[in-house]
Amino acid sequence: MKFPHLSSSVAVIGFAVCLGLFTAGCGSSDSANPPAVSINDPGSSGTDMTSHTVSTDVRSEPGKRSDFRGEEFPEVVLTTTKGDIHLRLDAKKAPATVDNFLTNYVSTNHYDGTIFHYVQPKGMVLGGLFDANMNPRETKSEIQNEAMNGLKNKRGTIAMSRDPSFIHSSTCQFFINCADNTMFDHIGTDDSSSFGYCVFGEVIDGMDVVDAISRVEVQSSDGFVNLPREPVQILSAQRVK
């Protein structure tokens, strides 16, 4: 099983047995282990994970944990072409992740005009890196993975994607769980596959919008799988609290 990936390359989420999430190579399709979601960034099947990386930092030097000075539960509204998704973030349990999301991406308008490039009913919707022309946006430093914070990948939660081979490799890509995806939870620190994907908030309004996005008609194109045939865009991401 593969896990969510969030760097900048082709990512495949092996959603086969249990919705495996995010690796690099959205294009490979195996009936026994169909690609799921590219949590970092999809490209051509079989492409090297770093081939589309636009981050100015190297994967071997993850971003350091920062001290988040804002409220413990800031809120963000994602206005999409399918409706609004209202998020409540947990800066108490995932301070570095929330700081990264708000400071590096929301406040800089990074997400405005990006798309959800992988969707799956009862799986998740993944986005945050590509625009409607499938061009990746520039990313900031990779951050420390806070998956051991006790938060679980339950339906309605938002989590960071990453390179499944590197624990501390999340940048801008995120996914919203449309089901309880326990296979993405932190279960140990021995290796990347057991470390999990960091949950840093939840949807408090607009889960019907998330479900609608997950059910749109999809296609496989240029190495991407489960790519919405008609782009589902994030028109804006704004902090409201």
Topology, element by element:
Elements: E1 75-80, E2 83-89, H1 95-106, E3 114-120, E4 124-131, E5 157-160, E6 174-177, H2 192-195, E7 199-205, H3 207-214, E8 218-221, E9 224-228, E10 233-239
Antiparallel strand pairs: 1-2, 1-10, 2-7, 3-4, 3-10, 4-6, 5-6, 5-7, 8-9
Mean pLDDT: 79
CATH secondary-structure class of the domain at 75-239: Mainly Beta
Categorize the overall geometry: globular
Secondary-structure class: mainly beta
The first-to-last residue Cα distance is 37 Å
**What is the overall number of helices?**
3
Low-confidence stretches: 1-68
Helix proportion: under 10%
- Report the β-strand fraction as a percent range: 15-25%
Q: What is the N-to-C succession of helices and strands?
A: EEHEEEEHEHEEE
Biggest pleated-sheet summary? 8 strands, antiparallel, barrel
CATH architecture of the domain at 75-239: Beta Barrel
Report the CATH superfamily of the domain at 75-239: Cyclophilin-like
Question: What is the alpha-carbon Rg in Å?
Answer: 15 Å
* Strands side by side in the biggest sheet: 1-2-7-5-6-4-3-10
Q: What's the total count of β strands?
A: 10
What is the fold named in CATH at topology level of the domain at 75-239?
Answer: Cyclophilin
Short description:
This protein is mainly beta.
Descriptors for this entry?
mainly beta; Cyclophilin; two-stranded antiparallel ribbon; EC 5.2.1.8
Commentary on this structure:
- GO terms for molecular function: peptidyl-prolyl cis-trans isomerase activity.
- InterPro entries: Cyclophilin-like_dom_sf, Cyclophilin-type_PPIase_dom, E_coli_cyclophilin_A-like.
- Its EC number is 5.2.1.8.
- This protein has helices spanning 95-106, 192-195, 207-214; strands at 75-80, 83-89, 114-120, 124-131, 157-160, 174-177, 199-205, 218-221, 224-228, 233-239.
- It is mostly beta strands.
- The chain has a domain at 75-239: Cyclophilin, CATH 2.40.100.10.
- The protein has an 8-stranded antiparallel β-barrel. It has a two-stranded antiparallel ribbon with strand order 8-9.
- The longest helix has 12 residues, at 95-106.
